[in-house]
């Protein structure tokens, strides 16, 4: 634009009087064209800077996304063959509090599922003696196994079970914020509940020394959750918990 700023106009202005000669005065357009080009250059530079800033933000976002995707890949439960398995992206927000809450729920549900699987199999071979409900003359041996038991156990029995679970959740098996997920001060090695023994403290879980056992518990719990789902489904379809359910 510097070259074109000092190009004279095609038509010069003339001034003539009766006594003076005609004088040609070139007019320059530096103000018009030069400032216009300068403004365009500044605008282009601003647009380029904004584009570079946006690209930098996108790169930072993608980089953060990669970090989030693997934020918990060193946690317990990351084992073969799936390793870090989060196909729904539930942990992509990198919220540690949410991840801990879900891990606590996973361990708890896994433990319940393992007991439930045992409860589906053991009653086929062993039942407690005596009465489940003396007032109704209902013995333990009278209660069928599986989903059929839901309608046979009296409402008072389910209320007692619910009250006991609430007691465990609120008091002896309450998850403390300063302890690892699934670790309780009232339980000892292998989950032995010491809260029934007054003054007896439990043990503290060591994620490093007990890594193999803790990973095994999580994986067994995951398997048990799938297994109990299959058992209930088969029981509902075939109407029995005997061998016919396993070998239809």
Radius of gyration: 39 Å
Main sheet makeup: 2 strands, antiparallel
- For the biggest β-sheet, the strand order reads 1-2
Given the C-alpha coordinates, what overall shape results? extended
**Distance between the ends:** 90 Å
- The run of helices and strands is EEHHEEHHH
Low-confidence stretches: 1-35, 60-69
Number of helices, counting only DSSP H or I runs of 4 residues or more: 5
Category from helices, strands and their pairing: mainly alpha
List the main descriptive attributes of the protein structure presented here.
248 residues; two-stranded antiparallel sheet; disordered N terminus; 4% strand; mainly alpha
Q: Could you explain how this protein is built, in words?
A:
This protein is mainly α and 248 residues long. Helices cover 46% and strands 4% of the residues. The protein contains five helices and four strands. The strands form two sheets. A two-stranded antiparallel ribbon has the order 1-2. A two-stranded antiparallel sheet has the order 3-4. A hairpin with a 7-residue loop joins strand 1 and strand 2. Helix 2 crosses helix 4. The protein is extended and about 90 Å long.
Blueprint of the fold:
Blueprint: E1 13-15, E2 23-25, H1 30-69, H2 96-121, E3 131-133, E4 138-139, H3 155-170, H4 211-238, H5 243-246
Antiparallel strand pairs: 1-2, 3-4
């Amino acid at each position: 634009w510097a070259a074109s700023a000092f190009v004279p106009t095609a038509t010069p202005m003339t001034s003539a009087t009766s006594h003076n000669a005609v004088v040609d005065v070139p007019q320059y357009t530096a103000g018009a064209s030069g400032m216009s080009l300068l403004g365009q250059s500044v605008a282009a530079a601003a647009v380029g800077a904004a584009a570079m800033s946006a690209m930098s933000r996108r790169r930072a976002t993608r980089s953060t996304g990669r970090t989030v995707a693997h934020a918990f890949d060193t946690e317990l439960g990351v084992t073969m063959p799936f390793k870090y398995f989060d196909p729904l992206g539930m942990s992509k927000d990198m919220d540690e509090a949410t991840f801990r809450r879900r891990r606590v729920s996973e361990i708890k549900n896994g433990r319940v599922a393992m007991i439930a699987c045992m409860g589906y199999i053991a009653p086929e071979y062993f039942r407690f003696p005596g009465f489940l409900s003396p007032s109704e003359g209902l013995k333990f041996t009278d209660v069928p196994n599986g989903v059929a038991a839901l309608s046979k156990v009296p409402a008072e029995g389910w209320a007692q079970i619910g009250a006991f679970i609430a007691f465990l959740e609120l008091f002896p098996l309450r998850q403390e914020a300063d302890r690892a997920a699934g670790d309780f001060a009232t339980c000892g090695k292998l989950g032995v509940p010491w809260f029934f023994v007054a003054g007896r403290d439990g043990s503290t879980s060591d994620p490093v020394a007990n890594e193999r056992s803790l990973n095994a518990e999580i994986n067994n719990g995951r398997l048990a959750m799938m297994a109990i789902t299959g058992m209930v489904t088969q029981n509902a379809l075939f109407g029995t918990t005997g061998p016919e359910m396993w070998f239809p």
